[in-house]
Amino acid sequence: MQGGESVNEEKRPSTMRSLERAIDVLEVLERSGTPLRLSEVAREADLHVATTQRILTVLEGRGRVEHDASGYRTGVAMLFGAHAYLTTSRVALAAPVILQQLADATGLTSSVFVRAGISRAAVARVEGTDPLRYVLPLGERLPLYLGAGKALAAYLEPSELDEVFKGKDAFTRADGTTVTLGDFHRELEAVRATGWTLSRDERVIGTTAVAAPVLSPSGACLAAVQVAGPSHSQTFEDTTSLGYEVRNAAAALAARLG
């Protein structure tokens, strides 16, 4: 009995490391957006080519990776996990009613984002009568330092914020504006003070968005509600009133989540 337990304990670190490497490989393919050669996957995942090949072969056998002459890419079976998330996530299930009301009231595209590490993704959306001029698919990886990401980043721990910037002391928005780390921290303080944030031309030129955090009773940030549309939309003429409306929608979603 004790001998068996000892063997299991010895195997556990190796098994966990293999799992971490497989996830690293999947994340490399996910971030790429285009097929990659074996050597490219190995380099991006910081793994030996032979190790990468073994991992890709296993993942391909389970449908999580596909491979042809153009290279390796994520496989169709990855959609199963995404579908399972969208059909079981309390946020994704509770959001549509709130988003429909918000889209009807503002005419803007309404979305809910959740955080995953140092990134965010939309998990529910309702189009408005003044639609966005670009396609933002559900599940696309987006940064936390732009747009609705700020409503999520405002509630990160200092160490997590450090990871978001990865040693950088500034970043540039789509309109060419350079934002220092100090500027960003002041924006996050404003989010916590007002309960909403405004973004103009930050990620996409010609687009304005207003977002608010969805907070649990304990103050944890569960998600962010956003409305977005063309910057020329009349709805953005009174951003303060719009900010309050989005904040109220976020509070309504929080109430539905309990």
Structure description:
The chain folds into 2 domains: 2-76, Orthogonal Bundle (Arc Repressor Mutant, subunit A); 89-257, GAF domain (Beta-Lactamase), CATH 3.30.450.40. The protein has a 6-stranded antiparallel β-sheet. A two-stranded antiparallel sheet has the order 1-2. It is globular, with a radius of gyration of 21 Å. 49% of the residues lie in helices and 21% in strands. With 258 residues, the chain is of the alpha+beta class. α5 (90-106) runs antiparallel to α9. The longest helix has 31 residues, at 2-32.
Arithmetic mean pLDDT: 89
Q: What is the percentage of strand-forming residues?
A: 15-25%
What is the approximate shape? globular
Count of discrete alpha- or pi-helical segments spanning 4 or more residues:
9
* Main sheet: strands, sense, barrel: 6 strands, antiparallel
CATH architecture of the largest domain: 2-Layer Sandwich
How many beta-strand segments?
10
Termini gap: 45 Å
